[in-house]
Amino acid sequence: METTGGNPRCGGAAYALLGLLLLTTLTHISALSVTVNDVECIYEYVLYEGDTVSGNFVVVDHDIFWSSDHPGIDFTVTSPAGNIVHTLKGTSGDKFEFKAPRSGMYKFCFHNPYSTPETVSFYIHVGHIPTEHDLAKDEHLDPINVKLAELKEALESVTAEQKYLKARDSRHRHTNESTRRRVIFYTVGEYLLLALVSGLQVVYIRRLFSKSVAYNRV
Amino acid sequence: MNIPIQRKGFSLLLISVFSLWSRADSIRFDLESGHTKCISEDIKSNSMTVGKYQIVNPNDGHPLPDSHKITVRVTSAYGNSQHYSDDVTEGHFAFQAVEAGDYMACFFAADHKPSTTITVDFDWKSGVAAKDWTSVAKKGSVELMEIELKKMLDTVQTIHDEMYYLREREEEMQLLNKATNNKMFWFSFLSILVCLSVTGIQLWHLKSFFEKKKLI
């Protein structure tokens, strides 16, 4: 990955090439799924001020299917300065987008108010489009690179949407499979319970009549 | 190394990457000493995958303290170990994914008396992103544009493939729902049958019992 980690590269020309690549193709993305017990934070580096940070997240809940009053999870984005840039409270999945006020390490946190773990799958994308200022600074930068960057951003937004759909589809599938399992389990359980109860009834009646009839006879 | 799933005392973070294709994924996360964090990624079969991890030095200029060491293990979807490093500060792995499915990379920090938090920078690429574009690139801005357009072409191709995959999944789910619907229908009938048969058996049994007892 071009941005974090600082890969040392030998050769000034290669460095320039890398720099050009950075300027035109800055797409810093990461898609994950996290099991949140309490608070889980992921750090993501934003290189330029004014970059659009977009993303989405979906809660693929584990076991809380029947508790419809689960408040959902909270999502906060903290800027490197420490102030909260974006929050979403009590949702089970949403999209977000904001303009980064400054460059630096941003913190994306999920908070789960319940003690049961929830799996959150999310996708974050930091996109940069070279502006007039960047064009003026670097003469190697062609105006066409701006268009290329815009095109790339559009493609990334399609990809982000796909990931969102995929995560939601996965959750839907999870729910469906759970419903199916529970339907079968409860139905069979109901039959067994019915048979058991009627068996107990018969036994009880037998006992009732066996003893009291004997009493009456005597 | 056992990967503890939901064991008390260990906070296991299952981080699975929702991506089937070419995507550079560089994340930074904190690892408390004595805890395990796992990252899993869905990798297609026969695709190249490259991973690089390193511990982030909290004080620049000073060497990393000795306690900051992690153990890393990468396992395939079926449990075969693809990479294992013990007590290292950084490393990398690369392999061709034979089996398709969820590959898991687990990080374990050894227990330390004052509980320390190690920041790990992890970079995992698979599929097309694992292709080293800078070595393919030549000097000059025209070639650069060509690389960019090639990348975008790959991206579009992958979007296309992903749409097919989503469509397949949706169809599977529809079938599943139809099957569940069908099952429920038959189960309701069965439920009435069971009810009636149980009642019938009860009545027959009690009748014969009372006849035997000469009460009827």
Architecture overview:
The complex is a heterodimer of chains A (218) and B (216). In chain A, the strands form two sheets. In chain A, strands 1-8-3-6 form a four-stranded antiparallel beta sheet, with helices on one face. A four-stranded antiparallel beta sheet of chain A has the order 2-7-4-5, with no helix packed on it. With 218 residues, chain A is α+β, with helices and mostly antiparallel strands. The N terminus of chain A is likely disordered. Chain A starts with 11 loop residues before the first helix and ends with a helix. Chain A is built from three helices and eight strands. In chain A, 43% of the residues lie in helices and 31% in strands. With 216 residues, chain B is α+β, with helices and mostly antiparallel strands. In chain B, the strands form two sheets. Chain B has a five-stranded mixed beta sheet with strand order 1-3-8-5-6, with no helix packed on it. In chain B, strand 5 and strand 6 form a beta hairpin. Chain B starts with 12 loop residues before the first strand and ends with a helix. In chain B, 26% of the residues are buried. The N terminus of chain B is likely disordered. Classes of the chains: A alpha+beta (218), B alpha+beta (216). Chains A and B meet through helix 1, strand 1, strand 2, strand 8 and helix 3 of A and strand 1, strand 2, strand 9 and helix 2 of B.
Helix and strand layout, with pairings?
The complex is a heterodimer of chains A (218) and B (216).
Chain A: H1 12-24, E1 27-36, E2 39-46, E3 52-61, E4 73-78, E5 84-91, E6 93-99, E7 104-111, E8 118-127, H2 132-137, H3 143-217
Antiparallel strand pairs in A: 1-8, 2-7, 3-6, 3-8, 4-5, 4-7
Chain B: E1 13-17, E2 23-32, E3 36-43, E4 47-55, E5 70-75, E6 81-88, E7 90-97, E8 101-109, E9 117-126, H1 133-136, H2 141-212
Parallel strand pairs in B: 1-3
Antiparallel strand pairs in B: 2-9, 3-8, 4-7, 4-9, 5-6, 5-8
